[in-house]
Amino acid sequence: MWSAANRSAQEMIWMSVGEPLYRDLDRMQTAARGLIDAPDKKGALHLDPSYVPSPEIAEVDIHLQPGGYALDRGPDDIIAGVFYETGGNVFSFGQGAGKSDSKAGVIFKLLDAEFPEIKPLRILDLGCSAGAASAAYAANFPDADVHAVDIGAGMLRYAHARAEALGVGVTFHQMDASVLNFEDGFFDLVVSHNMLHEIGAEKRRLMMAEALRVTRPGGIVILQDVDTRMAPSIVHQVEKDWDTHFNGERFWNIYNNADLVADMYGAGFARSDVAEHDMAAVSGINRWYIISGRKPV
Ligand SMILES: C[S@@+](CC[C@H](N)C(=O)[O-])C[C@H]1O[C@@H](n2cnc3c(N)ncnc32)[C@H](O)[C@@H]1O
Hints:
Layout: H1 2-23, H2 25-37, E1 44-46, H3 55-58, H4 79-91, H5 102-114, E2 122-126, H6 132-140, E3 145-150, H7 153-166, E4 171-174, E5 187-193, H8 201-214, E6 215-226, H9 234-246, H10 252-257, H11 260-267, E7 274-280, E8 287-294
Parallel strand pairs: 1-4, 2-3, 2-5, 3-4, 5-6
Antiparallel strand pairs: 6-8, 7-8
Helix pairs in contact: 1-4, 2-7, 4-7, 5-6, 8-11
The protein binds S-adenosylmethionine (SAM).
Keywords: Methyltransferase, S-adenosyl-L-methionine, Transferase
GO biological process, one term: methylation
Protein name: Class I SAM-dependent methyltransferase
């Protein structure tokens, strides 16, 4: 009964946001195009037409989102981003609206508490989706050069238009987080939000190594995700399996069972510089799992 109700609730999210989305799509695409083409915009959008998302992402309606993350129906398409933001806001009860993002908000707290000396001037957000966290970093660190990468062109067009509409400058790139096209040591802070559970083990290890490579000596890598792996209750244990089998979350269990600390060592972080954190969301009842690592000086 619980599983059937859960599955139906998840399907209803996409039906409820999909109907108004498609009804209003022309207006939204025109508005997004206007923001993307604006001569005085604050950020930038770099799409890579040669990029072909891997089947593990492209062929899955992740958490039942129609078309998944890589959906791209043409040069003005923003559906993946609109779906992600509106569906996500139903799912999270509006915790990611506007320039505030509850996940990024937790990282601001962590930086204040554990890394107060880090005043980031170059920030990279990996797997940014609709750019909720990216916009929050740009708003919170107005002097910083904020970059964000994702694999989905439809996702990135929307993220870019969204950031411009909010008046914050973020440079968005269509790029795989496991093969970053940035020079060594470029960033003070590299983050990812809810991305570890979306990728397989090999990509995760490559992504950690890339995050370390593009971070400057003394800079910080902070990877945040769902808390199902932290002291899981019986409910968490059921949820772990359920999402893998019934919610299009192919890597959910792989994330839950991974030894992420060992992966960070394997990526090149020193043992003494890696830490795990279990933090309460800034609003709502969620807790977040976070793993951080400082690049050796
Ligand atoms: C759950 S969403 C995270 C959204 C966003 N960070 C947030 O917290 O709102 C995961 C995102 O990671 C992206 N992604 C998955 N694999 C990726 C990869 N190899 N490189 C870059 N982005 C990837 C997906 O396209 C998706 O937008």
